[in-house]
Known about the structure:
The chain has 274 residues and is mainly beta. The chain has two helices and 24 strands. β5 and β6 form a beta hairpin. It is elongated.
Amino acid sequence: MKKSFYVLILTGLIMIISGCMPQKGEEINITYEFTEKDLKGLQSINISAPSTNLIVNTVEDEIITVQLHGEFGGNEGEKEKLIKTWMEESTFHTIINPPISKKWMTGELDLIINIPKRNYDEVAIEVTSKQLKMSPFEAKTFQLITTSGTSTIEGFSGEKFSITGTSGDIKLENFSGEGKIEMTSGNLSVRMTEITSPVSIKNTSGKISFFTPLDMKFQLDANIRPNRVKMDPRLKVNLTSKENKIIGKINQPVANDPTIFIRTNSGRLEIKSY
Length: 274
């Protein structure tokens, strides 16, 4: 009786441990294609991809392709609801519903979306916990919400952009327009192709690297100690510091030239030219 009892306990422990060990998920490959006819009137893009690596490419063709592949760790019911993609009026949507039961599963899902190269009214993207990489694109407005994970946008040409990030590095290459960036932590790199409108950057902690064309003129308003600021010596810089605030003029701006606002609690600022 004792031996059988101990065997039952040991068997139960093995089952519990095995149940908690990562299990290999099911390999999936789901593809959708929307033709030029399907995309009639297309003006905006809306993508929500939590717990999914997201790659957005701009292409010459007037089609949109959506491919989701990788290891899926959910059940059959969750698999049926995993991805939803559709055209509604002038907006193209792609939404990922990550499986709740993925806790003990290995592997990752990759979402690759190719969109036509054109000037959109709005592009809105939300990602969580994974990486985002996006090709250069044009739009009147761009909105990005990211919660952890690394985000890289290779270019944005437009009127306004809004970036909200929590605990993850963000890299913005070849940006233009009026901007608002708010981060809780993580390093931020912003490269502007031109500075013709105000840009506001708030990062609670983390390094802020701001790249500007060598000849751009702008004002600088930053609540940061001078010893935490590094300026490119090629820029014509005139800084006035008072307590923990810096007011500066870069390349001798006039009154109506735009201002770059920097707010940080414990970060560092570096301004470079190219």
